[in-house]
Amino acid sequence: MSAVRAPDEAHRQPPPRGTSHSSLTLALVGSGGDGVALLGDLLLRMAAQLGLHGMMVQSYGPQIRGGESAVILRVAAREVGYEGDRTDVFVCFRLADLRRFQGAVRLHRDSVVILEQSDTQEMPEWIGRSERETFRYPFARFENGIEVPGDPKNMLALALVCKVLGWPAALARETLGQRFGHRPDVLARNLAAFDRALGGPSPSEVRIAPGEGKALFAETGNEAIARGAIEAGVKFFAGYPITPSSEIMETLMDELPVAGGRVVQAEDEIAAIGMVLGASFGGVPSMTATSGPGLSLMTEMAGLSSMAEIPAVIVDCQRAGPATGMPSRTEQSDLNHAIYSGHGDFPRAVLGVFDVVHARDVMHRAVHLAEKYQLPVFVLSDAYIAQRRQIRGPVGERPPISRRDLWSPGMGPARFDLSGDHGVTPFRVPGTPDGTYLAAGIEHTEEGYPTADGTLHHRMNRKRFQKLDAIAAETREWFRVLGRADAAKGLVAWGSQYGLLDEWVGRHEDYRVFLPEILHPFPLGAFEAWRERLGSLAVLEMSYQGQLYRYLAGITNLSGARSITRSGGMPLQIGELERLLEGEER
Amino acid sequence: MKAKDFRSPLEPVWCTGCGDFGVLKGLTQALADLEIPPERLAVISGIGCSSRLPGYTRSYAFNSVHGRALPIATGLKLSRPEITTLVVGGDGDGFSIGLGHLPHAIRRNVDLTYVVLDNGIYGLTKGQSSPTTEVDFKRVRGLAGPDERPLNPVLLVLSSGCGYVARTHAGMLPHLRQTVRDAIRYPGFSFVHVLAGCVTYQTPGYAQEIYQRCDEVPAEYDPSSFQAAMTAACAERFQLGVLYRRDPGDGPLDASEAPGLAGIWQPRPARVSEDAAHEE
Do B74 and A278 count as a contact with CB atoms less than 8 A apart? Predict the structure, then answer.
C-alpha cells in the first residue's frame, strides 16, 4: 500500500452546498461476507438505469478470498475511467477494516459519513475530516456482546445510500428483483431489510446531476474483453483459471456457445494455447486469456504461432509480478514480456487496453490483426481494468474485421511463399483439397518442409517480419491524444493510465498526453509529430524499471525525457501523480 | 487408395533399420484401407525422431513443439470435428515432457488416435534415457540410479480411463496396420502403444530382443474386460493386440470391475445449486 498522504489542495475545495455534483465517489468498506461488493454492484446498476456513467473498483487481499473488502464507486454525468480521489459518501461497517485501504478513502469538508453505531474505533488521521455530522446506524446486531446474524448490512446500507443520493426506492427494489429473482426467499429477506432502513432515520443528502435519460449498461473489463471477442468472430477459446483474468473464460463459457463457439478449460496454460493453435490451424478464429505467470508458460507457443504463421490472440490481464507477485493487484510490468519474450526473433503485435469501454474495440482490432497477418497478437489489459465495473453507452459501429486470406485449389503459391512483399501468404485450411502441407515450428522451406539452410532462414525471417512493416503502416493512427495541442508539457503513458490522465488534463491545461493503442509496432510517426514544440516530456507507467521508457528509448531519441514509474499494485491517483511530476521521492 | 497416396514427397531422415519406417508404412496402409481423403486428415506431432512422421505423410500435418501435440490436436478436433486427427510421437515427448496432457486428453475423450512410437530412448538428442528406458539398460547418457524405474504406458492410460488401448510392434506390419485402422475407427480417444526399436542408441540387438519378448493376446482374450487389460498391462512379456476396448456407449468405467480404482471412478454427485450471493 502507498504511504500516508496529506489531502492536497484540490480536495479542500468542496463544491458549494445545495448544488448537484457532476460526479460523486462512494467508498464502501467492510469485512469479507458483509456484501460490500454486492452493494457496490447494485448501486452501479441503478446508476446505469438512471442514465449515469461511472465505474467501480474492488479491493481485496492477496489471498483473494476472505479478509477485508472495499469498493470505490464513482457515478458521474459523463464517461469516466478513473474512480476519483475524494470520497463524497463513506460507508463503513467496521473501522478496523479501513486500515488496509489507507489512501483509497479521502474525506473532504462536505463528505457524508455513515458508520456502524457500536463502532468505538477512532477515525484515522489520514482519512481527512468532514464538517458534516457523522451518521451512525446499527448495522450489526449483538447478543451478549457477540455479533449475531441480523438483517443483511448491505441491504440496510443500500437504503441509506438511496436516501443520501435521492435515488428512487422503486428502482432499488426493481434492481434487487433482477438480481435475486431466482431466489425468492433471499429477495424477500433483502427487501424487508431495505424497507426497514428506508423507514428509519436519514443521513444528510448530496445530489448528483441527472443522467442522460436513457438507461446505460455496466460491465467489467473482463466481460468486455469476452464480448468484444465474440463480436469480432472468435469461435474457440481455451484457458486456465488465473486471477485477475478468469472472468474472461467464465463469461465466454456462458456466452460463446450461444454464438456457436466452443470453450475449453485446459489442464494448464501450455495446453490452453496449444488448443488455441490447434483450433486456429483448423481455420477457426481463436484466443486465450491469462495473467503474468500463465503468459510465461505460453511463451514457447507464442513463438510457434509466429513461426508456423498461425493466428492467435493472447489476452494478458497484468498483475503485479514477478513470480506469483500480488495476484489481486495491478501493474504494467508485462510490457517487456509481450514485446520481447521468447527465444529467437519473431514478429508479434501488442495492443494496450485503455478501459472497459475500449476493451471491446481493442478485441476487434486484435482479432483483425491476428487473422489478417497470421501471427500472435498480445492484448495487455490489467487488474485495474479487468475487475473494474464500468458504465458504457451502446456499442457503436466498427470497421469490418479481416478474415484470413484463404488458399484455394489452383491458387499456386506455396504455403510459405517468399515472393510477396508483405509477408502474408494464403492460409491453407484442413479440408481444402490439394492443400495439404506441413506446418512446423522448425524452420521450413516455402512448402513447409524442414531446412537448416541459413540463407533460407534469413529470408523466412524477412518474410515474417515484413508483416510488422505492413501492420505499422495500417496502425499508424492507433493512438489517443488528450489535452490542448499547444500545451507545453507532455506525458506518454499507456493502457489503464488513460482514465486518470483524461481527468488530469481536464484540471491541468499545461499538459498534453500521448497514449499508444498499439505498443508494438509503436506508432512512432504520430508520436514524433505530437512531441514537436514540447517543453518537457515524461514517460509515466506502473512498472518498477520503466519498461515503456526503455522501450521508447530504444526506438527514438528520448534525451531530456523523464521516466516516472511507480509499482506497488494500487492504481495511481491524481494527487500522487502531481507529487510524482513535482519530482518528490517515491 | 494406396499407402503411397498418403506419402509426402519428403524422404525420411531416420537411421537405416529404424522401427519408425515400419510405423510409417503400416499407418499409411491403414489410412488407405479407411479411404480417408488426405485433405480430411491431420497428423499432429511434438518433437523427436518419431515426431517427424507427419512431415512424411500427405495430410494437413503439424510438427509442433516438444510434448504438446495432444493439446494442439484437441483444439483442432474440437473446432473441426470432421477432420480425422492422428497424434504421433515418441516416449519422451508423450510420457516425459508431455505426460501432463495425456490423462486430460483421455478424460475429455476427444475422438483422437494417439500412436506412441516407443523405442525406450531419446534418439534425436543422441541416447539419453527416456521414461520407458528399462532399468538394466546401459545408458549412453543420463545415468540414473537403479530405483529409477520405467513407466508402464499401458497401465497409465488404462488407469486414466482410456476407452481404447492397443499395443503392437513396428516390425509386425499386418498387425500394426490392422491395429491402427481399428483405433482410428474407434469413436473416442484411442491409444496405440507401438514397440519400436532404436538401432543407433539402444544396445545392439535390442529391437530383436523386444520382439522376442512379445506375445499376441490369445484368441479367447476378452478386450471388454478391464481386469484382463490390467493383467495384460502388468504381464512380464509384452502383450500385443487390442488390450481394452470399452463400448463407446458405455460411459465411464464400471468401478466394480476394478475395486482398486473405485475412488477414482465414483460417478459425480448431482450438482447442488448454490447461491450465496446475499452473503458475499
Answer: yes
